[in-house]
Design brief:
The chain is α+β, with helices and mostly antiparallel strands. Helices cover 68% and strands 9% of the residues. A five-stranded mixed β-sheet has the order 1-2-3-5-4, with helices on one face. The protein is elongated.
Length: 438
């Protein structure tokens, strides 16, 4: 298929061509997309869509001709593809439109490039199809290998500004189709290829500026994110310090009052008032029990965190089960771990507050060779949504979830593995921390 015989009304060849290009375009979309459905369902939906493409393409070419098909293919092919991919995507509408419209736009360019290459080498239909597969395959490989991870990370971090940006690929796609199809198809007026190349150059320049803008916004949001984490860490540590100071003050007062209790009890015993002495001892034991700091582990800072949050949980009527072993002090910085632990316990506590009775928080940890394993579970009857990386999506909106981000920041700093999952009415956080770090 070349410029000379491209417009032949061979419906079968055109249907095969459109289905192939559509399939390859879906591959480009998928290379930069994290779908919320499993692979089998995605493939099934794509298959149904391709059947629709084959039917509608054949009908339009048969009844209205090939040129009419080229003028309405944006509505019959591109728009349904964007809608289908968006329905299976985890991203916002504006971000999805930006991603898919960009892929559709570059698909138009690759299709034109493949036709021009095949014409230059005087190729046939088979060579044209092979050039299409090779060109698209190369682009899909590059996108998946080098762009997928940074693009997904960038889109996950940059949450604003996609609305205006999504208009850019939509505008350029419409401009490409207009120049290529109106007033006549570009194949019948080859000089239009120069116009299309000029548009391609403009697209590249605009996307360079778009990339720089997104990168600056990403850097700004990362700075803001780190600031939020530091603010939360400081707030958590201040809360722990206030709690310990309050406990120490109560113990100081108690030590002062014990002397008076001792004198009164001795007086009661001397006077034979044994029952009154027993009652005073019982009151003293109750007072000591109320202000006693429970010992969960030997590390002072970590124990302060556990005592504070688990006491809050018990005061809320939440049943607490612990089998906690602190990490080795000689291989680990307890302040950084205590902040991550405080965030995890605070998330568990907040989640349990809205749950019906009975409510549980279960915390256990142990050593396994050179690894430290910790698991924190809390009652959770609501279905938690997870993103493509297996991280829980905050139900209170994008401005929340700072506690989880702080845990992930700790994991990155210590090369720890973090896993979240929901099962049997419990939400569980698992941390595997390597201790053989330099």
């Amino acid at each position: 298929m070349t410029l000379g015989n491209f417009c032949d009304n061979n419906i079968i060849i055109h249907i095969m061509r459109v289905i192939l290009i559509t399939t390859l375009t879906l591959g480009m979309m998928s290379s930069l997309t994290a779908f919320k459905y499993h692979t089998r369902k995605v493939l099934c939906l794509f298959g149904i869509y391709l059947v629709w493409i084959g039917v509608i393409t054949g009908l339009i070419i048969y009844f209205a001709g090939f040129f009419m098909f080229t003028r309405c293919m944006f509505l019959t092919i591109s728009v349904p593809a964007i809608a289908l991919a968006y329905a299976m995507d985890c991203n916002s509408p504006a971000l999805s439109v930006f991603n898919y419209a960009t892929q559709v736009m570059f698909s138009y360019i690759l299709t034109m490039a493949a036709l021009l290459i095949n014409t230059a080498v005087h190729g046939k239909i088979v060579s044209y199809f092979l050039i299409l597969i090779a060109t698209y395959g190369f682009v899909i490989l590059l996108e998946y290998r080098y762009l997928r991870r940074p693009f997904l990370e960038l889109t996950k971090a940059v949450q604003i500004g996609w609305g205006p940006l999504s208009l850019i690929p939509v505008f350029f796609s419409a401009l490409l189709l207009f120049v290529a199809n109106y007033p006549i198809y570009y194949i019948k007026e080859p000089v239009r290829i120069l116009y299309l190349l000029g548009i391609l150059l403009l697209i590249l320049v605009v996307y360079i500026f778009v990339y720089q803008s997104i990168l600056r916004q990403y850097q700004f949001q990362m700075i803001s994110h780190q600031r939020d984490i530091l603010t939360l860490q400081i707030s958590t540590m201040e809360t722990q310090v206030r709690n310990m100071h309050a406990t120490e003050e109560k113990m100081r007062i108690l030590r002062h009052d014990i002397r008076h209790f001792s004198n009164i009890i001795n007086t009661c015993l001397q006077n034979g008032s044994v029952e009154e002495a027993r009652q005073l001892l019982s009151e003293l034991e109750t007072t000591v029990g109320k202000i006693q700091v429970k010992t969960y582990c030997k590390d002072y800072i970590i124990n302060a965190v556990l005592a504070f949050y688990l006491e809050l949980a018990e005061n809320e009527g939440i049943q607490v089960q612990t089998a906690f072993l602190s990490p080795p002090i000689d291989k680990f910085r307890s302040p950084s771990f205590s902040v991550a632990l405080a965030n995890a316990l605070e998330n568990a506590l907040n989640a349990c507050k809205n749950e019906p009775e009975p409510r549980f928080i279960k915390l256990k940890s142990r050593m396994l060779g050179e690894q430290y394993l910790m698991e924190l579970s809390n009652t959770c009857s609501k279905t938690i949504q997870f993103n493509k990386d297996g991280l829980p999506i905050s139900q209170r909106g994008k401005n929340h979830g700072i506690g989880t981000r702080s845990i992930l920041s700790f994991a990155r700093q210590t090369n720890a593995m973090v896993n979240f999952h929901q099962e049997n009415g419990f939400f569980t956080l698992q941390i595997i921390l390597p201790l053989n770090l330099p």
